[in-house]
Amino acid sequence: MPLRLLIVDDEASIRKTTRIAVESAGHTAAEAPNALRALKAIEEEGFDACFLDLKLGADDGLDTLAKLLAAQPTLAVVIFTAYANIATAVEAMRRGAFDFIPKPFTPDQIRGVLAKIEKTRTLESRVRSLEGELARESPPVALASADLATERAFEIAFKAADSSASILILGPSGTGKSVLAREIHHRSARRDAAFVTISCPSLSRELLESELFGHVKGSFTGAVADTLGKVAAADGGTLFLDEIGELPPELQPKLLRLLQEREYERVGEARPRRANVRVIAATNRPLADEVKAGRFREDLFYRLNVITVALPGLRDRPADLAGFAESYRKFFAARLGKKSRRSRRPSPWPSRATRGRATSASCAM
User: What are the DSSP calls for 51-69, one per residue?
Assistant: First the structure.
């Protein structure tokens, strides 16, 4: 599908040159000479992408970037900048810009960044399609419970969602820690950015470090190209570290640096990089015991354990089992084309009002 672009520059010649390059690539474009006109166009029409000049007359480019993204968070903003302002362009990307092009630029550079935007949009579409397929393959997860301890855990998690604090989710395997982590992300201000998962026990230490922080070409055997890593992919969003209790000791200080300073280094690269990520970690291990045994850093534990959400095991939630069974019965009946007989029993999960009364009664006791 052709992209709809907005070109924002106070120089008419730049707008014209960019528009010719955009239209020659099969896309459509509109123009705006200043921030006010650009914001009005975004609010009235909506666009897939925007080319924005950082030196926009009396308007500040970084302020304009923030306003454009506030008006349309999904907008891919490409920054125009002179070579002397590369550092500012990097700062713009940290604040949410998609890419930058140095001035003077060529039509091939414009077409190159358009191809990158198209590829990104295609991948996002595929991800949404796969998520839809996964949703159809399993019943919806009910983040409600008749168990007071579980309901209290959900309340803590959802209240903490809007903060940027790290969250540590504790609980036995199969209690839905990853599902809860994703729901926290969806309820946060970062919902429009990426939710990236990495499983700590799934790889060797060397491969896990590369997967997490990325690597540069030639840094080890098999490193045939630069790779950004999961931290870079989660920039602006949420990084979910599953089974954090199995993170190798050699990687623990590097994760601590990311949490403390928002900095990290790719494998084989000495230049520090910055990332604005919200970290949610989960484990089925008692991390406090791991700290006492010397297998987990105490300072890292306290950085991760800003907010704790403890999920009871399913064996401790007998009141919820009927609800799970009913949910699966309805789901698989629909999948098999069978008529689902309406249960004569009341819903096994309490209503929100009932849960509230139960919680209040518990507190009063």
Answer: EEESEETTEEHHHHHHHHH
Q: What is the pLDDT along the chain (365 residues), one digit of tens a residue?
A: 688 899 999 889 999 999 999 998 889 999 999 999 999 998 888 788 999 998 887 888 888 898 998 888 888 999 888 765 667 777 887 788 888 888 888 888 898 889 888 888 777 767 666 666 655 565 666 677 888 888 999 999 999 998 989 999 999 988 889 989 999 999 999 988 889 999 898 778 888 998 899 888 888 877 777 788 899 888 889 999 999 999 999 999 999 999 999 999 989 888 888 888 999 999 999 899 999 999 999 999 999 999 999 999 888 888 888 887 887 787 777 777 777 665 555 455 554 444 444 433 333 33
Q: Which CATH architecture has domain 142-314?
A: 3-Layer(aba) Sandwich (3.40)
* Alpha carbons 308 and 280: distance in angstroms, whole number: 10
Query: What is the C-alpha to C-alpha distance for residues 171 and 287, in angstroms, rounded to an integer?
Result: 11
CA 126 to chain centroid: 16
What is the location of CATH 3.40.50.2300 in the chain?
4-125
pTM of the complete model? 0.60
CA angle 290, 292, 297 (to 5 degrees): 65
| Distance, CA of 221 to CA of 216 (rounded, Å) | 11
Report the top-level CATH class of 4-125.
alpha beta
Q: Which residue has the tokens 């474009």?
A: 29
Q: Are 157 and 180 in contact (CB under 8 A)?
A: yes
- CATH 3.40.50.300 boundaries in the chain: 142-314
Here the tokens at position 355 are 């849960």
